[in-house]
Amino acid sequence: MKMIKKMLALSLSAVMAATALASCGNSDSSKSDAGNNGGTEGDSANTIVIGGSGPLTGSAAQYGVGVKNAVELAVKDVNASGELGDVKLSVVFEDDEADPADKAVNAYNTLKDKGMDIMVGTVTTGSCLAVIDSTKADNYFQLTPSASAQDVIRNDNCFQVCFTDPNQGKASADYIADNKVASKIAIIYDSSDAYSSGIYNTFKSEAADKGLEIVSEGAFTKDSKTDFSAQISDAKNKGAELVFLPIYYQEASLILSQAKSAEYSPIFFGCDGLDGILSVENFDTSLAEGVMLLTPFAADADDEATKKFVADYKAAYNNETPNQFAADAYDCVKIVAKLIKQEGITADMSASDMCDKLKAAISNGFSFDGLTGTGMTWTADGAVSKNPKAVVIKNGSYSAL
Q1: Which of 104, 166, 202, 398 has the fewest CB neighbours in a 10 Å radius?
Q2: CATH entry, 2-26+34-162+306-386, from 3.40.50.2300, 2.40.110.10, 3.90.550.10, 3.40.50.10710
Q3: For 14-32, how does the pLDDT look when each residue is reduced to its tens digit (9 = 90+)?
Q4: Residue 390 — φ and ψ, nearest 5°?
Q5: What is the C-alpha to C-alpha distance for residues 255 and 262, in angstroms, rounded to an integer?
Q6: Is residue 188 within 8 Å of 235, Cβ to Cβ?
Q7: How many angstroms separate the CA atoms of 258 and 85, rounded?
Q8: pTM to 2 decimals?
Q9: Residue 7 CB: number of other CB atoms within 10 A?
Q10: What pLDDT score was predicted for residue 60?
């Protein structure tokens, strides 16, 4: 049935194209060439369509743009390699503005209308939580690069390439304690955000087990995230040597600026949400010197896979350095491609049939070596097993520790 639909769509497209040529006398080649196997909708009955959504505009756009770019780059690489034989991949990607209340659901429905077979996304946790029950009901295989809340994978069709929030909190406390980074800790977190609260809760529990003293806990909400003077003052007055920031880079940049004004210079330590702080508009990046974070990817790593990815990404996207979200997204597509090949999935299968094969295969002894981890494995609960990397911001860039 899917093959017939694609052939009918091709026939209709051909008729429309012919009519346009007859009426206009010439064609716009830039439209037909757009994307070249990355970033365009599927254009043949032998194409498997990868769909994704994320914030391409708004305050979280660095995450979504990085994911979209890397997905397109990975699709181009898979197609160029010929690893899937006659099967090709293509991309449809929608802007959900990190808005779970409305736009995430609309984006998901648009992806379905555009022929999505497999979903790589969403990018942010809130948007992912808004669509996971729909992807379950529709039986789409869903692999998210960066939606890290544990509830994201409550259904059996959704898997993560990023760490879950609890894993990030535990790993952060373990690293601080095991490496004797500090003993007196302050935490500033967003109590209205699932990502931030999830990491905070696990960090607090693990810190107690590791003998770390939490001397200050400063919460804020989405409605009060511009003035952090009270949280900073409390951490300073209570002698916190390290401030743990399980938050996103926008708020972190304000905290660093306000800490300088308060003449407070502790160690700042965060998780993957801080990746992107060096690109905040009008932010003095010198304030981020020495900031530490756990992430699965360091762009300055010297392994050949990372060096090639960074070079290819920079060449394709105006010399921009890819962040961790881009690396996770690249791995997502390569994981999907390996599973497609392993399971003999073809483009004429329904999305539901693809999902059944993919979700069974990924949790049954499947292993993947990628940019963000080697020997990555998944169990049926959807969480990935891989080791985080500690990086520090040094001379205006992320450096592996």
Answers
A1: 166
A2: 3.40.50.2300
A3: 433 433 333 333 333 333 3
A4: -95, 135
A5: 10
A6: yes
A7: 55
A8: 0.78
A9: 12
A10: 86
Q: Which residues contact 20 (CB under 8 A, 6 or more apart)?
A: 27
Query: pLDDT tens for residues 164-211?
Result: 888 889 999 999 999 999 999 999 999 998 889 989 999 999 999 999
Q: Is 166-295 a domain of CATH 3.40.50.850?
A: no
Structure-block tokens of residue 213: 């003293």
Distances (CA, A) of 266 to 135, 183, 240, 316, 330: 44, 12, 7, 38, 35
Q: Could you tell me the residue ranges of all domains in the chain?
A: 2-26+34-162+306-386, 166-295
CA–CA distance, 173 with 205 (Å, rounded to integer): 9
Q: In what order do the strands lie in the sheet with 88-95?
A: 88-95, 47-54, 118-120, 142-144, 158-160
CA angle 111, 55, 148 (to 5 degrees): 90
Give yes or no for a cis peptide into 122 (omega within 30° of 0): yes
Q: 2-26+34-162+306-386 and 166-295 share one CATH topology?
A: yes
